[in-house]
Design goal:
This protein is mainly alpha-helical and 108 residues long. It contains 6 helices and 2 strands; from the N terminus they run αααββααα. Helices cover 53% and strands 7% of the residues. A hairpin with a 3-residue loop joins strand 1 (27-30) and strand 2. Helix 5 packs antiparallel against helix 6 (80-99).
Length: 108
């Protein structure tokens, strides 16, 4: 399964993905003698870690929330559509930050 994924991406991306140790190996040493199988899932997780912002702990930042508010604060001609878009983005980012302890309820 791992080898097929490289066919559908740009050459540079394929080189990066296939260069991961999890791609070539089917087992890796653990301790002195034990081995563990490397599955597609292990390889996929290693590949995802290559890209910034994919870790759960870094999905959103407080600065992104501040920037969203600042960008929308200056809009003088709000329509229901623009406010709805802003509100949805604000709720998504602020809720995530709150749930992960990046902001507190009194800062909301």
């Amino acid at each position: 399964m791992k080898e097929y994924t490289a066919r559908y991406v740009m050459y540079n991306t394929a080189e990066t993905w296939t260069g991961l140790p999890e791609f070539a190996a089917t087992t890796i040493p653990v301790g002195d003698q034990a081995t563990t199988a490397i599955s597609y899932k292990n390889w996929k997780e290693a590949g995802i870690r290559l890209y910034s912002g994919t870790e759960e702990s870094t999905r959103y930042t407080v600065n992104e929330l501040h920037q969203l508010v600042q960008d929308n604060f200056d809009l003088s001609a709000y329509t229901l559509g623009t406010f709805s878009t802003y509100y949805c983005e604000f709720q998504k980012i602020s809720w995530w930050l709150l749930q992960h302890g990046k902001i507190h309820a009194n800062e909301e």
